[in-house]
Amino acid sequence: MEMTVTRGRTRSLSHHRWLISFTSRLADISSTLLAGYAAYFGYFSDLHPTEQYLWGMIVGALLVAAVLPNLGIYRTWRGRLLSPLLFKLMMGYAIVGVICTSLLYLSGLGDNFSRVWLIAWFVLAFMGSLTARAMTYPVINRFRLQGRNRRQVVLVGDAHSCATAAEHLHKEPTAGFDIGKIYLVGQDTMSELADMHLTWEAYSAGQIHDIDTDEVWICLPISRGSQVKEIIADLGLTAANVRFMPDMRDFRLINHDICNVASLYLLNMSCSPISGSARWLKAVEDRIISSVILLMISPIMLALAIGVKLSSPGPVFYRQERVSWNGKPFNMLKFRSMPVDSEKSGVQWGGSQKKTTTKFGAFIRKTSLDELPQFINVLLGDMSIVGPRPERTVFVDHFKHEIPGYMQKHLMKAGITGWAQINGWRGDTDLEKRIECDLWYIEHWSVMLDFKIIFLTIFKGFINKNAY
């Protein structure tokens, strides 16, 4: 009877997965064809595409059917973040667009197709696929809330790790997982889950070798790796999916994930989000925005340069060695706001209000206008528009031994503004709070977050009670 139940559940889940995958593929192909037709009608005002455009749409649909599966778009996204799916979908259509453009160029047929139509076609196709998923996922979630298309999970591990997994699954019922049973490794008790009405028992070797479930999650700290190996060996006769949820509550993790390097599986514990296409995207963002801003503020910078020169003898710019991405030093530019000999007795941390400044220097520091030359640093590639504020090398060498996670702020390029600055953590404020904000930004980085910070900086960043 148990084997019949297991096979029945497996067939049911396989059927749901196959149906969702098939429907998604069909939606993307249909979206590509319909988008091509809509773009043709919108551009040519004709309901009857010519034969060459029809063949172009068919080739595009076939390329979508061939390219998108290789990006992992049709694998199960049960309980996972959908933002990576959105990015993969966008990249998929971009790749198909590049292939189509290359084919038209190499075949000499490029002049027979409208470039406006081609661009509109793939933009509409992407939007169509996105819309189809936006309409479908709420339906799937509703089915799961009604008890359909769900998977049964058995947890094996220590009390705290199993409690963490159970709590998250309980909070996200649309993920589609139900906990069937919990096996505790060791002498733990389940007092943490007393109010969740879950059954548990002590685990012993050989107890779960042919367990009847859809998935088994091993929930143990990394330090108990030998026990993980024994449990996996014990599961040798089960056809269930086996997953390992390492308990890493004692680590400060940033952009943690699993990667494959040289055929080795590595667990990313603290990694920069700026790699691959993200690095290119961030660089383009910085270069374009800094170029536009420098053109806009060039008259203001000229006026400020004259003001600095007339207010006191010395150079217009003040150069400080600061630390940026990967702990590399660079010379950060500022408009000079202090007399040239103001630091002859040495560099001191904090005390911004007590530092000697010229009258004009006090004004540009209070309004943050002294920071404007840093857009030149961005254009040169030393800094980003948005990122953790850089610190002097001498202070970095000091703080890295005192503040947990301090060096992790250098997983991204230093920025002119950042999450800490728009939240008021600048000047002589709590350094640990600033680091928390910097690490939160690195963990949650996105282009949209950058634009949000830039927008808020206009209203919050220039004039601030903590700016001196």
Report the count of strand segments: 12
What is the typical, i.e. mean, pLDDT?
Answer: 80
Biggest sheet: strand arrangement: 3-2-1-4-5
Task: Tell me the structural class.
Answer: alpha/beta
Number of domains: 3
Report the uncertain regions: 1-15
Name the beta content range. 5-15%
Q: Fraction of residues in helices?
A: 40-55%
Shape: flat
Radius of gyration, whole Å: 29 Å
Largest sheet: 5 strands, parallel
Count of helical regions: 13
Order of helices and strands: HHHHEHEEEHEEEHEEHHEEHEHHH
Describe the 3D structure.
It is flat, with a radius of gyration of 29 Å. It is an alpha/beta fold. It starts with a helix and ends in an 8-residue tail after the last helix. It has 3 domains: about 1-145, no CATH class; about 150-250, Rossmann fold, CATH 3.40.50; about 275-460, no CATH class. Helix content is about 50%, strand content about 15%. Helix 1 runs antiparallel to helix 2 (about 50-65), helix 2 crosses helix 3 and helix 3 packs antiparallel against helix 4. The strands form 4 sheets. Strands 3-2-1-4-5 form a 5-stranded parallel beta sheet, with helices on both faces. Strands 9-8-11 form a 3-stranded antiparallel beta sheet. The protein has a two-stranded antiparallel ribbon with strand order 6-7.
